[in-house]
Structure formats: structure tokens, C-alpha cells
Design brief:
The complex is a heterodimer of chains A (181) and B (95).
Chain A (H helix, E strand, L loop, with lengths): L1 H4 L3 E11 L4 E6 L13 E2 L6 E2 L1 E6 L5 E5 L5 H5 L5 E5 L10 E3 H4 L3 E3 L5 E10 L4 E7 L5 E5 L7 E3 L4 E3 L4 E2 L10
Parallel strand pairs in A: 9-14
Antiparallel strand pairs in A: 1-2, 1-7, 2-6, 3-4, 5-6, 9-10, 10-11, 11-12, 13-14
Chain B lengths: L2 H5 L5 H13 L4 E5 L14 E5 L4 E5 L26 E3 L4
Parallel strand pairs in B: 1-2
Antiparallel strand pairs in B: 2-3
Classes of the chains: A mainly beta (181), B alpha+beta (95).
């Protein structure tokens, strides 16, 4: 699986500006724990041509990360990096536990019914505080469906064949009763 | 004693009927569509999945013990915000 995942690049953050006069940069981190952005080794830009070795210094009250990048020693050089997106190779991330999946691994997988019929494609993973939800774009339809990421709705996730088996939730029969609104 | 305590938690009456009906039917993949975002999550809802309306669609919410006492609307935001996934992990819930 590692060879399949090797080429996938995951966006971990974006440089949003310079901080101070000593070459420090402000980073908007997309990491689960914002301060972990520097814990996966050197990051690269989108094309992979430039690499950035970060040292996270602190977090601002607004949640941005103040970091120092090796080779950036003054404000002008730091300002020149504004807008650069920081990527990490998927294989540099630690392997998740059983029943844990990186969002990046799930997005793009095909959703199929238990009988093998194609349902659609996972376009995002959401979490509104009540567990993870996979957002599926149903083939031939514009709108998307949210499905709880739980065993009874998603019994099987197969990263090798890039598909998930999804039992689509069914609505209760009396849903259309207007009196309950 | 605060007013909210002696009155007890608010829940629309039909919610209890719907939950009871679904539990009796035993169909575990059934989502109970509701519009009542103001209702409180009660212990008898644990294990059921509700589709809470957010103004556009019904967001599936699987009720766990941790949610008791919160309002259904808390789990179905009405404004969409999407961010990059980064290194975030989805945990597959049991059951």
C-alpha cells in the first residue's frame, strides 16, 4: 500500500505572511494539531521543487503558527514566501490505527453498494461533533449525501482497490408527516 | 432552583413517538428525519440515528451517551465551512 500512497501529497498548511524582522513566517496550519505541522520532516511546495524545513516557535492567539524556515533570515525573504502551500508526502505520515483512516485516503474512493452497484464518489469527510460523516456525490446527481462513518453504514473500506462498501441510510416511513415540524 | 431544572428538558412530543416506533421496528439503518433542532437529546434516543435538518438537507446524527442533554441542532450546523483535511483522521464508529 505504501507504494500506492507514495505519490499522494497532502496539503498541511499555507504561509500567510511574515512575522517580525528576523525571517519568521506565519503559517495557517491544516494539521489536526496545528503545532504538528513541523513534525513530519521537510515540507515541499505544490510542484515539489522547493523544500522547507520548519521549526515551529509558537502559536498566535488567533491560531496561526509562527515558525522559522531554514535559510530564511530576513523579513524580505519571509514576505516572498507569502501564499506558498506546504505539502507532505502521504508516506511520511504515521500509519493510522485500526479503524482509523486519514481523510486524504478516503477522499476520492468509489462508494459501492453491498451488491457491487456503483453509488458515487467520496468527495469530503465532515465532522460536526457527532462523529465522522463521509460526503458522497451520487453518480448522475448534483447534490451530495452524508453517511455516518460507522460499521453499520460503511461495513468495508478497501484502500487497495480504492472503494468503500456503503449501506445507504433509509428514511423512516412517516418522515413526510408535516405535523411534526 | 433555576427554572430550566424544575421544568425538565424540552423535547417535542412527536420525537419520542418516532424514536419508539423506530426502535420497535428494529431497522438499524433507518434515519429518523427531524426538523426539531430545539429538542434535547434524551437517554432513550441513544443508539438511534436522526437526520437533523440544517435548512438545506438532513444531516445524519448517530446518538451516543455523550450527546445527552445537548440540543439536536448543535450537531447539524446551518453554515457550511470546509477546510483542508491535512493529517486529520476519521475514526470508524462501532455499531
Amino acid at each position: 500500500m505504501a507504494s500506492v500512497l507514495r505519490t499522494i501529497m497532502i496539503l498541511l498548511g499555507r504561509i500567510v505572511g511574515a512575522h517580525g524582522i528576523k525571517g519568521e513566517v506565519l503559517i495557517h496550519s491544516f494539521a489536526d494539531e496545528p503545532g504538528n505541522i513541523g513534525s513530519y520532516g521537510a515540507l515541499s511546495d505544490k510542484s515539489g521543487t522547493r523544500t522547507f524545513k520548519l521549526r515551529v516557535l509558537r502559536m498566535t492567539p488567533k491560531g496561526a503558527i509562527v515558525a522559522r524556515i531554514t535559510g530564511i533570515a530576513d523579513r524580505n525573504a519571509a514576505e516572498a514566501l507569502k501564499g506558498v502551500e506546504l505539502y507532505v508526502a502521504r508516506d511520511k505520515l504515521p500509519e493510522p490505527d485500526e479503524d482509523e483512516f486519514y481523510y486524504a485516503d478516503l477522499v476520492g474512493l468509489a462508494a459501492v453498494a453491498p451488491d457491487g452497484a456503483h453509488i458515487g464518489e467520496i468527495i469530503a469527510v465532515q465532522n460536526y461533533g457527532a462523529g465522522d460523516l463521509i460526503e458522497i456525490r451520487i453518480t448522475g446527481r448534483k447534490e451530495t449525501e452524508l453517511v455516518p462513518f460507522a460499521d453499520r453504514f460503511v461495513p468495508q473500506v478497501d484502500l487497495k482497490s480504492r472503494k468503500v462498501v456503503v449501506v445507504m441510510p433509509v428514511s423512516a416511513a412517516d418522515d413526510k408527516e408535516q405535523s411534526d415540524r | 432552583m433555576p427554572r430550566s431544572v424544575w421544568k425538565g428538558p424540552f423535547v417535542d412530543g412527536f420525537m419520542l413517538k418516532k424514536a419508539e416506533k423506530t426502535r420497535a421496528s428494529g431497522r438499524i439503518n433507518e434515519v429518523i428525519k427531524i426538523w426539531s433542532r430545539r429538542s434535547t437529546v434524551l437517554p432513550q434516543f441513544v443508539g438511534l440515528t436522526f437526520g437533523v435538518y440544517n435548512g438545506k438537507k438532513h444531516v445524519p446524527v448517530s446518538i451516543t451517551e455523550d450527546m445527552i442533554g445537548h440540543k439536536f441542532g448543535e450537531f447539524a450546523p446551518t453554515r457550511s465551512f470546509s477546510s483542508h483535511g491535512g493529517d486529520k483522521k476519521a475514526v470508524k464508529a462501532k455499531g
